[in-house]
Design a protein that fits this description.
Blueprint: H1 2-24, E1 33-34, E2 37-47, E3 52-61, E4 67-72, E5 77-80, E6 85-86, E7 90-93, E8 96-99, E9 106-111, E10 117-123, E11 132-140, E12 148-154
Signal peptide: 1-24
Keywords: Signal
Organism: Sphingobacterium spiritivorum
């Protein structure tokens, strides 16, 4: 009888403790905001035939008022797992398309509050077997002109 009571106590104790442990291991999935902008990764793909890496992202502004988004195109780069950086070939935000050959320093886009904007970056001559690790976005702070924020987005 004493062994049965001890067994039930252990079982009850286990039922009370184990759910608490599993809750403690959950990862908080709240997206990170930088300057009231959230960056979500939609897709990362490599076309082996054309040796092109394509990153599909969404940018969402959570400022109460519409804002101008100013991205430094030459500072924005893709990093691979080896730590090597790559310049974009093209980048498109909404309907605004910029090619590296255009030598345009900034991409300007008018963002509205809580409206997701598609942002696509392509990198030509992507080496077979390489994996993209992150994309580094460099954009102007909405509160201080001339100050730029660097945001690394893991892929």
């Amino acid at each position: 009888m004493k062994k049965q009571i001890i067994g039930y106590c252990i079982l009850l104790f286990g039922m009370l403790i184990i759910p608490g442990l599993s809750l403690a291991q959950e990862v908080d999935a709240v997206p990170e905001l930088v300057d009231d902008i959230q960056v979500d990764v939609k897709n990362v793909s490599v076309d082996a035939k054309t040796k092109t890496l394509t990153l599909d992202l969404f940018l969402i502004s959570y400022q109460k008022n519409p804002r101008e988004f100013k991205l430094n195109t030459f500072a924005t780069q893709v990093l691979d797992t080896k730590g090597q950086t790559y310049m974009y070939s093209t980048m498109q935000m909404g309907k605004v398309l910029i090619k590296l050959s255009d030598r345009q320093n900034y991409l300007h886009y008018f963002m509205e509050d809580e409206v997701p904007v598609a942002f696509k970056i392509t990198v030509d001559n992507w080496t077979k077997g390489n994996k993209a690790k992150a994309v580094k976005l460099v954009f102007e702070d909405s509160t201080e002109a001339g100050k730029f924020i660097e945001k690394a987005v893991n892929l």
